[in-house]
């Protein structure tokens, strides 16, 4: 009984509640105004290039657009954990806007990441229920960052289907949202095929590969079996400003349903329980 009460008290200490003034009427959290504005602005830049730019300008724009989308990828991650809008139809439109820039289809993060990685990240191969973003090979040896990124890039769709078969409702939403996504891509390829590839598809694929590369450090080499010491944290103000507190990764895994804007408060509560060597102060 005492142990149970102590555990309950500990869990209660991890609870974070947003003040009413941080909530929105159209948005669930006012903090999402900035990320949404950024994502929409970059999307409008893409549309302008797609409609008006010459093929040469589109070629030159591939890497800059991928660079801009690097910061949309964490926005998409956060949105899939806690949808940004109160209205479901706005969330689905926003899903499409983000998917076209990041290379991850609507509900893809939900399947692979929320229902896969978050449930299994403490399990690395050869565990029978391994992490969908696993950093070890089948024999238990550690992958390098390049091998990890390539493996994730090539296998993520297969893992989404595998997880989806265990979660039919989310899998159905995933498949249904493929229709408008593929429809938009199809229209783009029909109207301006080269520009669609250069402005949307290629930068999104580069962003997707970078997402794997950037997330390798979160868990690679850590074999602990507790949320508090199984993640690396990048406790750098600029990094977390640009990624929506993605560097506060232990807090995120402790409370994956907590809005990104509230992670600093949880991080402060648990910081002294995180091994010091797993808190990185630098930006990169």
* Average of pLDDT: 93
- Distance between the amino and carboxyl termini: 46 Å
For the CA atoms, what is the radius of gyration? Answer: 20 Å
What proportion of the residues form beta strands (DSSP E)? under 5%
Largest sheet: 2 strands, parallel
Task: Output the structural class.
Answer: mainly alpha
Give the count of helical stretches: 12
> Any idea what the shape is?
globular
Spell out the helices and strands N to C. HHHHHHHHHEHHHE
Parts with pLDDT < 50 across at least 5 consecutive residues: 1-10
Strand order of the largest sheet: 1-2
In total, how many domains does the architecture comprise?
2
Proportion of helical residues: 55-70%
Tell me the number of strands: 2
Structure, described:
The protein is mainly α and 284 residues long. The chain folds into 2 domains: 26-221, no CATH class; 233-284, no CATH class. The chain contains 12 helices and 2 strands; from the N terminus they run αααααααααβαααβ. Helix 2 (33-52) runs antiparallel to helix 3 (55-69) and helix 5 crosses helix 9 (193-215). It is globular and about 55 Å long.
Name some characteristics of this structure.
single chain; two-stranded parallel ribbon; 284 residues; 2 domains
């Amino acid at each position: 009984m005492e142990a149970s009460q102590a555990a309950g008290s500990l869990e209660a200490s991890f609870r974070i509640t947003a003040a009413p003034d941080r909530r929105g009427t159209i948005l669930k959290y006012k903090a999402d105004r900035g990320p949404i504005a950024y994502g929409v602005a970059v999307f409008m830049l893409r549309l302008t290039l797609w409609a008006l730019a010459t093929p040469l300008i589109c070629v030159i724009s591939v890497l800059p657009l991928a660079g801009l989308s690097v910061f949309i990828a964490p926005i998409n991650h956060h949105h899939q954990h806690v949808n940004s809008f109160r209205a479901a139809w706005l969330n689905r439109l926003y899903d499409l806007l983000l998917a076209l820039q990041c290379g991850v289809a609507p509900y893809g993060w939900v399947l692979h990441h929320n229902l896969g990685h978050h449930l299994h990240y403490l399990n690395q191969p050869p565990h029978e229920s391994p992490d969908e973003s696993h950093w070890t090979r089948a024999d238990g040896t550690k992958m390098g960052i390049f091998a990890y990124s390539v493996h994730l890039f090539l296998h993520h769709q297969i893992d989404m289907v595998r997880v989806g078969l265990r979660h039919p409702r989310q899998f159905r939403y995933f498949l249904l949202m493929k229709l408008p996504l593929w429809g938009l891509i199809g229209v783009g390829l029909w109207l301006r095929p080269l520009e669609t590839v250069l402005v949307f598809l290629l930068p999104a694929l580069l962003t997707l590969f970078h997402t794997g590369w950037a997330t390798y450090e979160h868990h690679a080499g850590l074999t602990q079996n507790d949320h508090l010491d199984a993640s690396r944290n990048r406790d750098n103000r600029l990094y977390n400003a640009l990624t929506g507190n993605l560097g506060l990764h232990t807090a995120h895994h402790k409370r994956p349903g907590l809005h990104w804007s509230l992670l600093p408060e949880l991080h402060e509560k648990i910081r002294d329980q995180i091994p010091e060597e797993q808190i990185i102060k630098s930006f990169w």
